[in-house]
Specification:
189 residues, alpha+beta, 2 helices, Sortase, Chain: A, 8-stranded mixed beta barrel
C-alpha cells in the first residue's frame, strides 16, 4: 500500500502545479479577449469602457507587431493587479504619440512574451482608445537593473519603451529588466 501512495501523491502534486500554471495563462488569454471588446467599444463610443463591471482599470491602447503576429491591449496603470490582465501604461510616462516617452510594462511569461521575437527595425503600431494611431520603429534593446533603466522621463522626442523582466525563460523574478526602445515614425487619426 505505501508504494502506491507515494506515486499517487506525486501525481496529485504535479497535477495541481500544472493546473496552477495553466490557470495563469488561461486568465491572461481570457482577460485579453474581454479587454479587446472593451477597447473596441471605447473607440466606437468615444467613452472609457471597463472590461468587466468590477474592474479598477480600463484599456488605453493596443500594441501590435504585425511581422510576428503579436497584439496586446494595454491597461491604465501598472499595479500588480492590472499587470495580471495585460500590459500597463506607467502613469508618470507620456501617452503614446505625445512628446516624451510612453512606457508600457508587462510580464515576460504572458503579455510581453512576444518581445523576445521583436527585432531592431520592426514596426510597432500603437492605437489609443481615442482611435489615434501611432507607428514606431524598434531602435534598440538593453538589459538593465530594475532601478537603473536609463529611461529619461524628460526626453524631448516622441518615444516608446516596452519593458519586462529578464531573462525571458527565468522561473523566478530577478533584478534585471529587458527594455525595448522605439521611435515614432508616423501618426494618423
Amino acid at each position: 500500500m505505501p508504494r502506491l501512495v507515494s506515486p499517487l501523491a506525486l501525481a496529485l502534486v504535479g497535477l495541481i502545479l500544472f493546473g496552477d500554471g495553466a490557470y495563469i495563462h488561461a486568465k491572461a488569454w481570457l482577460a485579453q479577449v474581454l479587454l479587446e471588446r472593451a477597447f473596441d467599444r471605447s473607440i466606437a463610443t468615444g467613452q472609457a469602457v471597463k472590461p468587466w463591471p468590477w474592474a479598477d482599470t480600463r484599456p488605453v491602447a493596443r500594441i501590435e507587431v504585425k511581422r510576428i503576429g503579436a497584439s496586446a491591449i494595454v491597461l491604465e496603470g501598472a499595479s500588480g493587479q492590472a499587470l495580471a490582465f495585460g500590459p500597463g501604461h506607467i502613469h508618470q510616462s507620456a501617452d503614446a504619440g505625445e512628446r516624451g516617452i510612453a512606457v508600457y510594462a508587462a510580464h515576460r511569461d504572458t503579455h510581453f512574451r512576444f518581445l523576445r521575437n521583436v527585432a531592431i527595425g520592426d514596426v510597432i503600431d500603437v492605437t489609443r482608445s481615442n482611435g489615434r494611431h501611432f507607428r514606431y520603429r524598434a531602435d534598440s534593446t538593453a538589459v538593465v537593473r530594475f532601478d537603473a533603466s536609463g529611461i529619461d522621463p524628460a526626453a524631448e522626442g516622441f518615444e516608446l519603451v516596452l519593458a519586462t523582466c529578464w531573462p525571458f525563460d527565468a522561473v523566478t523574478s530577478g533584478p534585471e529588466r529587458y527594455v525595448l526602445h522605439a521611435t515614432l515614425i508616423g501618426a494618423s487619426s
